[in-house]
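Hello, quick one for you while I still have it in my head. A protein chain has come my way and I'm curious about its shape. I'm sending you its amino acid sequence along with the backbone structure tokens. I'd be grateful if you could look everything over and explain what you see. Here's the protein in full, and shout if anything looks odd to you:
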Amino acid sequence: MRSNGWADLYGWELDRGSNVPLFRQIFAQVRTAIVAGALKPDTRLPSSRALAERLGVARTSVVAAFDQLLAEGYVESRRGSGTFVGVDLAGLPRISPRHRKPGIAKSPSTPAPRRSFQDFERATVQAEARPFNTGRTLMDARTVETWRKITNQVMRSPGNDHLGYTDPRGLTGLRQSLCDYLRAARAVRCDPEQVIVTSGTQHATDLAIRVLLEPDDEVWIEEPGYPLTHAQLVLAKMWPAPIPVDVQGIVVDAGIRIAPRARAAFITPSHQFPTGVVLSMARRLELLSWARDNDAFIIEDDYTSEFRYSGPPLSSLQGLDDGERVIYIGTLNKALFPGLRLGYAVVPHALLPSFLRARYLIDRQPPSLQQAVMAEFMRQGYFAAHIRRMRHAYCEQRDALAATLKRRAGDGLKIDVPDQGMHLVAYLARGFSDRRIESEARQAGIVVHAISRFYRSRSPRPGLMLGFSGFPQALIVPAAARLGALIARHTRHDINE
């Protein structure tokens, strides 16, 4: 039997100035480690020779300690295999993890947490793989095989980038590839020095909040809008002001009226979350003018820019910015897979030192192995090819979802088929409860998100947000049929009443 190595890593040491005999010190250390649970039953202990060499003592001291442990039943000797922590130690005062109550055990001396993050349970829903959960992606066989091949290449010859700490902005190769991609696909004005690799848009948003804002600052957020951005701002003790969104995007005039002293605006201009509307050119220019005149910043979250289904991708707001007022953030997690944990921020030159210091203090640097694989994936053209294939597949999945819902739900839904993104919104008739539909759909094995949860101040328009990017048509069509039938039943029930 092989050792699991934990006993080799244990902090064995002796007190040379103590009057306690060495063998008794060794015995006491092993016994304490076993009783405390640091050395589990069936753990193989170092050999007497190896432990003697490590402690710098005669082997006889270790043998004497092992003999005492053996006599008292803490360890057992197995011929030809070594000395192991005893398997039958039921009499020791140890609490089995199976018998612990869930949660944090609280004693009178344990301080109470100042914040409990009550909304955290909502995050567990995102892990569900049932239609029509959001934030999920698909990878075809070509992408999987290519990713495996490049990963093997990187692992066969790990370079110096992986053997020490690197630039907190990220690897030069990945930042160059990101810069080339963003300039070509999104009309972002940048050079590699401005690109900071993050773990995703949420991480980039956190950096922006830390660098640009102080507690009690007013900021604009969209309504309806992304709930995690609101939660991050509240956590940082800001004053997020919900600004209404209409068919042209965020209403700048309303923002000036509602929060005239705002220091920043957090927006999703290319595909507003959750409605999917595009910020019009007039509003873009109006927003940039507001930022210039009020010494404010705009955080442009371009979270699903890759997937546009009619015409070329929209140009970024950042590309129109002459005053370095826009921090552009994006993610590779939705373009490929959420487990990748790679995103980016494009930061104006004047803000770079502050962003870099914050990035370094929070997380030192992004993981270099994933960056190296991603850089090669992009450099060799596989990323662009993957996006083209997935854009076609997601478009078909979107259309299958919309067509099935329209056919089965009847007049109970008004479906906005988006030109971009990875989800669609199906609006319910006034008077319907989207949260009730959300709950009943979950009981039927379907995950939908009530968009009334994304409103903070205005009366919400009831609707359901449905992700289509993470599910093949073979799953989408029957699940959409069940959901449509459920909504149709509600419609008939209301008419009969």
Remarks:
- The domain at 6-85 is CATH 1.10.10.10 (Arc Repressor Mutant, subunit A).
- The radius of gyration is 29 Å.
